[in-house]
Amino acid sequence: MRKQWLALLTILLVAAGLVMIAGNAFGAIWYVDKNSPGPVWDGHSWATAFQPIWAGISSAASGDEVWVKAAGQYVETITLKSGVSVYGGFAGTETQRSQRDFKTNVTTIDATLVTPRYHVVTMIGMTNTRLDGFTITGGNANAGSLPAPETP
User: Fold this and answer.
1) pLDDT tens string for the chain (152 positions)?
2) Looking at residue 141, what DSSP letter applies?
3) For residue 20, with 0-12 CB atoms within 10 Å meaning exposed, 13-18 middle and 19 or more buried, which class applies?
């Protein structure tokens, strides 16, 4: 009887370990809603979402996703990070990315009021990066380009 309990305990511990490993393999989700009421804006849920997109990107690590609620225009510029996926088109109630509807929930990044504004989205030397479900407007790249990234 004791061997059976030990075998069952071992199986349960191995299964729990596999679930933990699989859960961490997909990275964290960071939430952004420019109208998030606070008083906490830690990006861990829709209720405590960051207000600017750049805050979600800044908090994210490689393998993470940033989910952005369609809440009017986000007046800002953003710089993407390697390995981080940024998705727009959320209503703010979703628990799975597949539930979003970016055609109905238009999410706009607008740099018209940002000074100085050149590029709305900057992505230099990115790998495994995605920007999906956004309308980008208000850029003005006529003033030149960003300097090339430094190499060590």
Assistant:
1) 545 433 433 443 333 333 333 333 579 999 999 999 989 999 999 999 999 999 999 999 999 999 999 998 999 999 999 999 999 999 999 999 999 999 999 999 999 888 777 789 998 888 999 999 999 999 887 755 555 555 55
2) G
3) exposed
The answer to whether residues 42 and 30 touch, using CB atoms and an 8 Å cutoff, is: no
Q: Take residue 74 and report the two structure tokens written for it.
A: 């986000």
Cβ atoms of 73 and 35 closer than 8 Å = no
Q: Within a 10 A sphere around the Cβ of 121, how many other Cβ atoms? A: 16
User: What's the rounded Cα separation, in Å, for the pair 23 and 65?
Assistant: 14
Q: How far is CA 115 from CA 44, 74, 77, 95, in A?
A: 30, 14, 10, 35
Indicate the length of the chain as a whole number.
Answer: 152
Domain range summary for the chain, segments of one domain joined by + = 28-142
Residue 17 is which amino acid? G
Distance CA(110)–CA(34), nearest Å, equals: 13
> Residue 146 corresponds to which tokens in the numbers above?
């960003």
